[in-house]
Specification:
Elements: H1 9-19, H2 24-46, H3 57-62
């Protein structure tokens, strides 16, 4: 997908420096991928203790299904 965005110069400079990307596009892609990964992890962590999963780990390890 192509998109045009206005990013302040100082932010873009920092982004290029931190990502070590060779182009603005690559830097933005890397930043968006990392943001998405971080948000996904946060969502998964927020579920901790809220899901009731009754698994017998020993049975799972012994079975060939894994």
């Amino acid at each position: 997908m192509r998109i045009t965005v206005n990013i302040p110069d100082e932010i873009m400079k920092d982004l290029l420096k931190y990502t070590k990307a060779k182009s603005n596009s690559q830097a933005v892609k890397l930043a968006l991928k990392e943001w998405h990964r971080t948000k996904t992890i946060q969502q998964l962590k927020s579920l901790r203790g809220k899901l009731n999963i009754d698994l017998d780990v020993e049975k799972l390890r012994a079975s060939d299904e894994i």
